[in-house]
Amino acid sequence: MAWAVGLALAAGTPAGTAITNQAAASYIDSANQPRTTTSNLVTTIVQQVYAFSITPDGTETSPGQTRSNLPGGQVLFQYTVTNSGNGTDTINLNYAQGANGTSDDFDLLNVQIYKDDNCNGNVDAGEAQVTSLTLGADDTACVVVVATIPTTATNGQYGNLNLTGASSGGPTDTNNWARAVATTAAALTAFKAASPTGSVAPGSTITYTISGSNTGGSAAHAVTSVVTVDGNSKNGILITDVIPSGLTYVSGSLSGSAGAGTVTLIYSTNGGTTWTATQPASGVNAVGMLIEGSGAFFPQGASYTLSFQVQVPSGASAGTSYANSATVQFSPDGTTTQLVTTNSTTNTVGASYDVRVGPYQYPEAGATGSYTVSGYTVNRSGDAQTINSAYSGTQVVFRHTLKNTGNTSDSFTLSFSGAPSGWTCSLLADDLTTPLSGPVGPLPAGGTYDFALKCAIPSTYTGGSVTLNVIATSQGDSSKTDSAQDTVTSVDDGFRFDLYGGVNGTGNYTYTQTTSGTDYTSDDSGNPTRVIYQSGTTFPSANPGAQVVYRLRVKNLNFNGLPDNYQLLLSGVDTTRIASILFYADANDDGTPDGAPISNTGLVNAGQEFKFLAVVTLRPDAAPGAAGFKFEAQSTQSGAEPKDFASSQVNVNTVAQVLLDPDRSGTVTSPGTIQYTHTLINNSNAPATCNVSGNGGSYGWTYLYSTDGTSWQASLSGVSVAPNGGTQTIYVRVQVPAGEPIGRTDVNTVTASCTVGSASASDTATETTTVVGGELRLQKSAVSYVGSTSTVRDPAGATAYPGDRIVYTITAENIGTGNLTNVRVSDPIPAYTTFVSVSATAAGFPAGSTILYSTDGTTWSATAPSSVPTGGAVYVGVDTNGDGTIDANDVMPPGASITITLTVQVQ
């Protein structure tokens, strides 16, 4: 399973998502032949929404947190920064002081902001000062603001400080005031840590640790009757933690100690209302530690710690968060009671993504039985489907069912392979008409989706077995795929005639170090340059977004035999290509991180070595080239030779991937002209330069190509497309001469051959054009609007933000000279959108005709639907004979048109 955090974006659909939509129509032409046609593809790119928060909030008069210490002592304020936008953002951090004499008594000194990597509320060795944070969508980071109370402050005086943030996209957060109080009395600190931090898997264990010490100016006093344990009133210092709802206390895991007093571990089964010193057999939902004593018994410098474990439910839903903090009660002066609350830790249940696809009604294999479609019997067995024999010039259809077998909502990309040259195959919705031009979904965990693979076998094709692979890929985790096989056992000549009379188908990169000296050591002459290589090659190579894992060591070779602690540092990191580098302990040297990230080795005895990993994560949009960095280790004891380092780099591969979508089909009269549009998408991490050409024209038809719909050429060269989702519209004009017979079909395979850096990539789209007596032309356009207002966001519908509406206009027109019948226009509700409304108008139809709507192509109504599920489709037709349905008795005359307006909202 792959575990990930940030499943339901606070700002909706991720930035850069392409929402694609294509309409389709089926009809019977004037030669009484069933036909289908598709519109141009409309693509809308979701734009980035910038939003973030810093918590806890607070005002100058009512601060969100208060910390106390001696004059000249440090105070630590803990904050959480959350990116609630839909894309990566950089939040710049700063601080402001209160107005002395008006709102507070003094300014804090030596204010520093640290990134709290392990979210324990304290500043650990190796944690860096920051002025900004770069966070992915829904990511969070912990920071600690460290400041010093002036030595001139007197008892009871206080200073206010505000941590402020500004997003790179504009929003700010400035209501995060905190207060530092100078005191000569006792002051207990309180920190909370969770291990692991961040994402957790269902069924896993979290260890919570609460710790602190007396940093004040005198001993801390016991609180009289601070708690009742087993019916007896107790005096002392009390630390309590209410376990977050949903988590289960691990029996026997509670432990604690203190630098003074007598420690009693206590338990509660009612959220801390009553306590017992005997662990209950079950139902523990709060734990604590009583440090018993009397008077001023907890001296300056004395510390305490409390630790326990909880278990995450095995069936926890992805995205479930567990926030936890603890409280400490003590008396600073023997008279008053002070309550200190720790920082809050948050663990989020990660998502497991998975998918299964199989024969119709059997997504998880085990299929049996058969069904009939397009005139052929499809036999199901296990994870495969077979048509025993098909004829050239016909269509074969295999229906499939996909199932989301992950634990969270997900969308899926469908694809296929194995089609022989000349076969025209496409993926359709289960109505066998509506094309699938983008991802399907999102589907809830356990949800299913029915679709079909349809292939037109050329009239000239005959041969043996053909196997087609249908592939479903999770968008949440592209490594999760599944496939099913469709086989046509043989294709026979489908054409016959008779003259007679009478009756008759990671890599894990092994650590290798090249140096003139001994591995893991430095020498008295200074720090030798070391370079870490991938075994057998120069430097490791990886794709954008991938991880490269290094096995590293620090060995203590102290001549004095003393132990040492080494900080683990980085320098020279190429942040344009590298998202993060984190260190992890790896005691058993198995290449798997032990617990949370670390910033130092801890004590390493002389002659011993510390084994750890460095996990280098590349940015998803990393450009090709070398991403350099240095691993550094720094002694905390020695000043003579403080650092040793090893240089390395990861070569970011050129990822060359282009898509030319969608496949198109249409009808045309003879003579006549039809124009198709395709979208060329560059999903590479470098610019693409493409040549576009086609192989149509076997009957003397003329094919011309354009990038602007104005200038036309026999082929295109030097078409530039920007990287990381850049698009270019490709126009194809087909000119059919006079004298072509009705029913003649020409298939043009359009090929985009692209150069991406030193690599190449290509993709194709097919255009199937059929000569008819009458012709239905289908055209589509889009406009995006700001939210639910009438303010236009993009008149071409090419961009939109989460919450925006996209209004699609589909026009179907009979541009031929004969009547068309049984005309049904369909349009799917694209992924990442929610249906809002649909309406239609008609022109040129007989008087008394009625517009009808359907959501399944079978049941029709004069009332437009009020809801359509994402992935479903809307069907529109015109009832000309008044029977309340759409069939072959309903006529669309020459020049008649249907205009549909479909409105959806971006999720």
Overview in brief:
It comes from Thermus filiformis. This protein has 907 residues and is an all-beta fold.
Summary keywords:
7-stranded mixed sheet; 6-stranded antiparallel sheet; mainly beta; elongated; 74 strands; about 900 residues; single chain; Immunoglobulin-like
Please specify the SSE layout and strand pairing.
Layout: E1 18-21, E2 24-28, E3 34-38, E4 42-46, E5 52-55, E6 66-69, E7 74-83, E8 89-97, E9 109-115, E10 132-135, E11 140-148, E12 158-167, E13 172-173, E14 177-182, E15 191-195, E16 198-200, E17 205-213, E18 220-221, E19 223-229, E20 232-242, E21 248-249, E22 255-258, E23 262-268, E24 286-292, E25 296-298, E26 303-311, E27 321-324, E28 327-330, E29 338-341, E30 345-349, E31 355-359, E32 370-373, E33 376-381, E34 384-387, E35 390-391, E36 395-404, E37 410-417, E38 424-429, E39 440-443, E40 448-456, E41 466-474, E42 481-488, E43 491-492, E44 508-509, E45 511-514, E46 531-534, E47 541-542, E48 547-555, E49 564-571, E50 578-585, E51 594-598, E52 600-604, E53 609-618, E54 625-635, E55 643-652, E56 658-661, E57 664-668, E58 672-682, E59 688-694, E60 702-706, E61 716-721, E62 726-736, E63 745-756, E64 759-771, E65 776-785, E66 792-794, E67 799-800, E68 805-814, E69 820-828, E70 833-843, E71 850-854, E72 873-879, E73 891-892, E74 897-906
Parallel strand pairs: 4-67, 6-14, 16-30, 34-42, 35-43, 44-48, 47-55, 57-64
Antiparallel strand pairs: 1-4, 2-3, 2-69, 5-7, 7-11, 8-10, 8-12, 9-11, 12-13, 12-14, 15-17, 17-26, 18-25, 19-20, 20-24, 20-28, 21-26, 22-26, 23-24, 27-30, 28-29, 31-36, 32-33, 33-34, 36-40, 37-39, 37-41, 38-40, 41-42, 45-46, 48-53, 49-52, 49-54, 50-51, 50-53, 54-55, 56-58, 58-62, 59-61, 59-63, ...
Keywords: Signal
Signal peptide: 1-17
Domain DUF11: 798-862
